[in-house]
Design brief:
6-stranded mixed beta sheet; alpha+beta; 28 helices; 19 strands; 3-stranded antiparallel beta sheet
């Protein structure tokens, strides 16, 4: 059977602007960007000329006769582009495109005039002071300003900075600190700086005399002698030069002064969306590079690493303006110049946009479906007044590994009566049209082109029960975006359900053993010797201590484990009476199972969906055992928890069972075994529903050419003039039988022996040729998540949190920081 995601080679067609191109549209492929470099589709009618000038920088990519992507002519990244989307994002990409910046820099280096002075090895040449070389905006009028402007001796230790031909600042050649300067201002502040300049004092200490007097030998550590300093600039290019004449010792022992050539270095301003202002030019990402023994230093690379540090550790942008931070960086490398917090924010955003393009390409080139998970995040701190919705994509890539990436972080809810937030967080306000579950998720689906690739949605209760989420599901079903009428959509988050089940028995649990457990720990915390005993017991336990903001039952379970281990380590001490001890052991057994199941399903490492059924079944089993073994009141409490769990089972048994059917070690036989033992004759309704859903999903995954439509069948039957209509009908029936045969052959084939190191994704990858349709199903189904949050947040009472200082930022900036942090990890 031909693979669904087979790649069809297409030709490149260039279209003149003044003529329309008409070509055949019979063989339009579903997706044109699969694994190649990306070309124009030959099957469309190019009716409308792209009037925006931004298209001079892009090549349109057509799918099914419509523009779907725009390929940058410099970096060849592909951006989503539909007729209704506009071109603002294309303009923004051009401002931060690294390949375009490199091309512009190369062009300037090739066409610009480079003033330099050749150094003759046989003797000195006449000195020329490059500090007084003033470069005009066009680099044509070198003599537009003369050295007579710089009469003060202080300019021998400062480099003038020109913007648009006017003096704006002065850079100290010793410490690279930038001070204000203009034509009519004084120079006293420059002289005062030299008195306290750490770089100048260090240089004086190294040379034992003033910087410009000849020395017996050059100091390798002197920044004024052997490193580049920023010099004249007009906002387009910057001149980097040696700031002082280097003394050279001749074989005879005489000191010879040589002049180093001026070097042209392109300026790389920070990527911004609104252009470079004068303020930003003063703190631009100047690409000053110098060769050192340890390697080549690059200013922009340093800022990129600093941006990664800020993102990964959630530091505020203002950290780059802290005096301590600047001092540390200057001590590590005096060449590095610090930037403002606004420039660092732009750099972090640019890093996010770059990574987003790469991940978009991965999803665009994949033919597989994506499962989504939605969770609610809050700012760290008490009583949050704003909630954020985090949307994560789960999929199995071409490497047959499970991947999870955050694709959207938007506003879910914000308190309209919080006056303090309105005053202090003006930038953080979000229009109603851009908040809420419907707007956030639908915006992400369109932005990432996932409308025809969604398989399932796993969400927490606040999202799942929201009316807007139900509205989005109805809209997706109407647009035929979901398989099998959305039966796998809007799945309940498993750890959210288990928390609800435990909460059903919270009052009884605390009533049974809450006071006794509290008395035990109060008694053993009263003396140092008792505390030491407790610490010894805890150190022997392989259990992580819960955080202070952990859920109540997680803390209570930890205390029960400590109590039971203490009783085992010190059997002579009376901990609880016999009845309370039995109840404590039963409650601990239930909570232990809940803890382990949540820990497995919300593990940060990627797991496959075939393990969820067995984990949920463990919870059902332990509740059933304790309900039958306990006393009257305790059994009643467990039965209430059973009822809450059964309601969850009724809504999720279908999606939990389908991955097990695709596990070659179990298949449908394991499901039949479990359900018949649990429900007896009532199990048949569950089993028939599972079989029908698996076959329905399989038929939708079949290639349309293998599964003829009713229209084509009727057309063949009505064609009286076709003498071979009976032959066509025979072929159609045979094709339908072949489709069913693949699923039947798999289910009838023997089971694979169970092994601990079994890799189900690797098994399906190796059996793609034998079961192509089922392999495609398995690649999508096995990526479905059971939890919308990771384990650390699953046990947290407030769920996932963002740093408190994030909440004062623009929602787009928060999204960039949260997503980039997730991708870097």
């Amino acid at each position: 059977m031909e693979m669904e995601h087979a790649v069809i080679q297409q030709q490149v067609v260039e279209y003149p602007e003044e003529h329309e191109v008409e070509v055949d549209v019979d063989n339009i492929m579903k997706t044109e960007v699969a694994y190649g470099s990306g070309v124009h589709s030959t099957a469309f009618r190019y009716k409308h000329k792209k009037r925006s000038k931004v298209w001079e920088e892009y090549k349109p990519i057509f799918l099914n006769g419509k523009v779907q992507f725009a390929e940058c002519l410099y970096c060849h990244n592909r951006l989503s582009c539909k007729d209704s989307n506009g071109t603002s994002h294309l303009w923004r990409h051009q401002k931060i495109c690294p390949a375009k910046s490199e091309a512009a820099a190369e062009g300037q280096q090739k066409d610009s005039y480079f003033p330099y002075v050749l150094v003759n090895g046989d003797g000195p040449v006449s000195p020329i002071d490059p500090v007084n070389q003033i470069i005009s905006e066009t680099l044509d009028d070198i003599g537009s300003a003369t050295p007579s402007r710089f009469k003060s001796k202080v300019w021998k230790e400062f480099t003038p900075i020109y913007v648009e031909g006017k003096l704006q600042a002065a850079d100290c050649i010793h410490c690279q600190k930038r001070l204000s300067a203009n034509k009519f201002g004084g120079r006293s502040h420059l002289s005062r700086h030299l008195l306290t300049c750490p770089g100048r004092l260090e240089s004086l200490h190294n040379h034992h005399k003033f910087l410009f007097e000849p020395s017996s030998a050059p100091s390798f550590n002197s920044r004024a002698n052997d490193e580049l300093s920023p010099a004249l600039t007009n906002g387009k290019v910057q001149i980097a030069e040696y700031a002082n004449k280097l003394p050279r010792i001749s074989p005879s022992g005489d000191t010879i002064h040589t002049i180093q050539p001026i070097q042209m270095v392109p300026a790389h301003p920070p990527p911004t969306s609104d252009g470079a202002s004068l303020k930003k030019q003063r703190t631009s990402f100047t690409n000053i590079s110098t060769d050192k023994s340890a390697g080549k230093f690059c200013q922009e690379t340093s800022y990129q690493e600093l941006a990664k540090m800020i993102i990964l550790h959630a530091y505020p942008f203002s950290v780059v303006e802290h005096e301590e931070m600047r001092r540390v960086i200057k001590n590590l490398n005096p060449i590095v110049g610090m930037v403002s917090h606004n420039d660092m924010k732009d750099h972090c955003t640019a890093l996010f946009q770059k990574e987003k393009v790469n991940i978009k390409d991965v999803l665009a080139l994949s033919c597989r479906r994506v499962s989504l998970s939605a969770s609610i995040w809050t700012p760290d701190g008490p009583e949050p007044t704003v909630n954020y919705l985090c949307l994560t994509a789960h999929f199995v890539g071409d490497d047959w590994k499970v991947h999870r990436v955050i694709i959207k972080f938007g506003m879910f809810w914000s308190s309209p009566t919080n006056l303090e937030r309105i005053i202090h967080c003006k930038e953080a306000s979000v229009p109603e049209s851009e908040s809420g579950s419907y707007n956030v998720m639908w915006d992400a689906i369109r932005d990432w082109n996932l409308d025809q690739k969604i398989l399932s949605l796993t969400s927490v209760g606040d999202v799942r029960n929201n009316a807007n989420t139900v509205k989005l599901k109805e809209m997706l079903i109407e647009k035929k975006c979901l398989p099998i009428q959305g039966k796998l959509y809007n799945i309940a988050c498993l750890d959210d359900i288990l928390n609800s089940v435990v909460s059903a028995g919270q009052a009884d649990i605390l009533r049974f053993v809450g006071d006794a457990v509290m008395e035990f720990f109060v008694a053993h915390a009263s003396s140092p010797s008792a505390q030491q005993q407790l610490l010894e017991v805890i150190s022997q336990m392989s259990l992580k201590c819960p955080q202070e903001d952990a859920k109540w039952w997680h803390k209570f379970y930890f205390r029960l484990e400590v109590l039971l281990h203490f009783k085992k380590s010190f059997p002579s001490e009376e901990v609880l009476n016999l009845e309370d001890m039995n109840v404590a052991e039963s409650i601990c057994k239930i909570l232990r199972m809940f803890y382990r199941v949540i820990e497995v399903i919300s593990c940060p490492s990627s797991i496959t969906a075939n393990i969820y059924f067995n984990e949920v079944w463990k919870v059902r089993t332990v509740l059933q055992e304790e309900a039958s073994n306990g006393n009257g009141e305790f059994s009643r409490m467990v039965m209430e928890m059973q009822e809450a769990f059964h309601g969850y089972w009724q809504n999720t048994y279908l999606w939990l069972s389908i991955p097990v059917v695709l596990d070659p070690r179990f298949k449908i036989g394991f499901i039949e075994f479990r359900l018949k033992r649990a429900f007896g004759t009532n199990s048949e309704s569950y089993l028939s529903d599972i079989r029908e859903t698996v076959r329905e999903l399989f038929n939708e995954y079949c290639n349309p050419t293998d599964l003829p439509s009713a229209a084509s069948n009727s057309a063949a039957l009505d064609a009286d003039n076709d003498l071979l209509e009976d032959w066509d009908q025979h072929l159609n029936e045979q094709a339908s039988c072949q489709i069913s045969t693949e699923l039947d052959d798999y289910l009838e084939e023997g089971l694979v022996p169970r092994k601990d190191e079994f890799d189900i994704l690797n098994w399906w990858m190796n059996h793609t040729t034998k079961y192509p349709t089922l392999a495609a199903m398995a690649q999508d189904i096995l990526a479905m998540p059971a939890s919308a949050v990771q384990s650390e947040a699953a046990f947290n009472s407030s769920g996932p949190v963002i740093p408190k200082h994030y909440s004062t930022l623009n929602i787009k900036t928060i999204e960039a920081l949260v997503c980039a942090r997730d991708w870097m990890r």
